[in-house]
Each structure stands twice: as structure tokens, then as C-alpha cells.
Known about the structure:
This protein is of the alpha/beta class. It has eight helices and seven strands; from the N terminus they run βαβαβαβαβααβααβ.
Amino acid sequence: MSLGVAFVTGGSGGIGKAICLTLARDGYDVAVGYKSSESKALETAGEIQSIGQNAVAVCCDVADAESVRNSFSFCKKELGRVSVLVNNAGLADINLFTHISDGKISEIINCNLIGAMNAARAVLPDMINEKKGNIVNISSMWGEVGASCEVVYSAAKAGLIGFTKALAKEVGLSGIRVNCITAGLVDTPMNAGLSESDISDIIENIPLSRIGKPQDIADAVSFLVSEKSSYITGAVLKVNGGMCI
């Protein structure tokens, strides 16, 4: 028996794939959202089906409101109403603020912040009607403390934290919980450009002496959408090994 339907944006790889598989093991049917990595999304959906849960790969450009509406309409038709939304799609760019292009600024803000808003707006009518639902936004520790050479990304992720807190207040009376995870450095393709020396330097500043794994984030998501966290909303859960406390 399914616990419901989970839609994970940016679900085709790295943290997203770990979230999709973990929610499937928890008992959710899963829509694996992707923008361009169709083959990876289909592979993840296949792994979910092998677990025994229903799954579909759904093309979803979170920065495009119409694409989001179409994606969630397709998901509803194939799997049913979405009861869990994980806003995981993200985009980073390491550059001096004075050197970043106008287009890249818009791209980062639209993916990391506006995209989460678009997805939430798509699922909320059904959640409000059902008087239940969970939204988890994947932010970053840089949204809390800021990062040099990632100014726009930090601003977008900070906005995601504010969005989480405000929306939690607005929809709490409808039985909907909204929470946020601020991820530290996680071993994903997004950080593949870091050298071993860079990673070693970073680890020296992490009390738990390691970088994160995608499963660390996935386990936090699993907790936040479970009944074990039924009295938690508007929270910002730090999953960073103690790097930012």
C-alpha cells in the first residue's frame, strides 16, 4: 500500500536520486522530476519500480511556470495527487559577483527560488483541499551564512529559507507542513570540480570530519515528511556536519 505520491524536482541524480529512492523505500510512489537528464531519470524510476513502488520520470523545468503545471498535471494523471513535494532542483555558479552575467543571475534565482515557488503553487490547491501535505525545500548552508564567489546562489538559497518560514505560517491551518534543509558540502556532481586539496581544506573545518553523502540529505527528508516530525513546520534543519552552526 502506498503512503502517497512524492514529486522530487531535480530527481535524476546526486541528492535527488537518493531522495527518490529513500521515499520509495518508505512506501511512496515517486515522480522523478528532471530538466535534461532523461536517461538518468528513467533509470531512477526503474529502480523505484524494482523496489515495488510506482514511478514516472517527468520532464519539468521548474523555472517555467507552465512547464511545472503541465508536469504536475501529468503526475496526477499517472500516479495521483501529490502529497509530498521536495524542491531539490538547484543551480550554482562560482564566480565573482562583478563578473557574473545578467542572464546567469536570472537563471540561478529562477531555478533555486522561483522554481520552488512554482512547484509549491502547483501542488497546494490539492493539498489544501485534502487538508494535508508536506513540502520540503532543499536549501544550503550558504543561504544562512553566505559564500564568497557564490553571492547570487547564496541569496537565492536565503530566499528559500524565508519562503519556507512564511509559507509554513500561511498553510499550517490547512494541515500542510513546510520545512527546509540547509545542506552542507555534499559529494555530488555539482561539486565534482573541487580538487582533493580543496576538499581536504574544507573537511578541516567540519567538526564531523567528512563531507556529506546524498543519503544524509535523503534521510533528513524522510524524517521531515514522516509522522515522527508531525509537530515540526517552518523549521530549518542543518545537515552540514557542524560546519555552520
